[in-house]
Amino acid sequence: MSSKHQLLAFVSLLETSKPYLVNCVRVPALQSLLLFSRSLDTNGDCSRLVADGWLELQLADGESAVRLLAATLRLRAQWESAMDGQLAQARRRRRQRLDDNEEEEAAPGQREEVVVALSKELLQFMASKVSYSLRRLTGLEVQNLYVGPQTITAAPSLPGLFGSSATSPHPTKGGYAVTDFLTYNCLTSNADLYSDCLRTFWTCPHCELHVPLTPLERIAHENTCPQAPRDAPPGAEEAAPEPLRKVSDLQRPYHCKACQKDFLFTPTDVLRHQRQHV
Ligand SMILES: [Zn+2]
Ligand SMILES: [Zn+2]
Fold first, then answer.
1. Three-state DSSP class for 45?
2. 198 CA distance to ligand 1 centroid (A)?
């Protein structure tokens, strides 16, 4: 196990019409996979992660894995809303050039602040030190990756484990879909079933609740504890509602010609939806 695995990231200029390789940077593997994977699947205690269905990450402990995943969710949401802001601005500029009327520029300074804050958080995230091992799954393992849909939800959904995200059972993988890319507790494992249930007595530092809990149940309680200070994790509480509100500001009616349906979409929603039809 080490915290120094690296992936080669290809940085190409998005502005050029002909995409070619301009730079090649070594970046930490774990953090890049968390930020850029199309799918992330976890086991019950989140110590085992599978990125895009074929790269396995084994982390030393589930508690730091859960905290990393929570940061991942926050950063990806902020990133998406920052991109929405940029796309909306580009569209406004184009419209202005077309009919040349004086339209109100929506607080450009504020948006820059959001981007600067996001860049800082991304650098911090990239520098975080976690021990893990990285390996490519074998064909057989890929075929038997998921527990599959569960008729009886044996595994707890642990509401509050990843902040306020609501979870729902994943229809094909099993486990719980936390976001469109993260599925919790859908990986099969040969670890003994008892390890998920190992509870030790724990006292909540905020409400003095004293009960036997697993490490994940502790995090879930701390995130939902009625007496926990709301400003505790830097940026988590104050930053979360802000981008959400902005996203909804950017939603526009969208009619998809391919599936003949109407939606209320942000610019990135549109791109994501169009990808389904390719
Ligand atoms: Zn508490
Ligand atoms: Zn469509």
1. coil
2. 20
Q: List, edge to edge, every strand of the sheet that includes 40-42.
A: 132-136, 55-59, 48-51, 40-42, 182-184, 176-177, 168-169
For residue 252, report the distance from its CA to the centre of ligand 2, in Å: 15
Name, of 15-29, 104-118, 239-253, the range with top average pLDDT. 104-118
Coil/strand/helix, residue 11: strand
- The bound ligand whose nearest atom lies closest to the alpha carbon of 270 is 2
Cα-to-centroid distance, 79 and ligand 2 (Å): 24
Identity (one letter) of the amino acid at 114? V
For CA atoms 154, 159, 162, 167, the dihedral sign is positive
* Nearest ligand by distance to the CA of 262: 2
Pairwise CA distance, residues 166 & 268, whole Å: 21
- The CA-based diameter of the chain, rounded to the nearest angstrom, is 67
Is 122 exposed, middle or buried, given 0-12, 13-18 or 19+ CB atoms closer than 10 A? middle
Contact 149/169 with Cβ under 8 angstroms?
A: yes
Q: Is the ipTM of this complex over 0.85?
A: no
Give the model confidence (pLDDT) of 120-162 as tens digits: 888 889 888 888 898 999 999 999 899 888 765 555 566 677 7
Pure H helices in 44-191: 62-99, 108-127, 139-143
241 Cα–ligand 1 center, Å: 22
Ligand nearest to the CA of 219: 1
- Say how many Å lie between the CA of residue 255 and the centre of ligand 2: 8
**Cα–Cα distance for residue pair 225/206, rounded to 1 Å:** 8
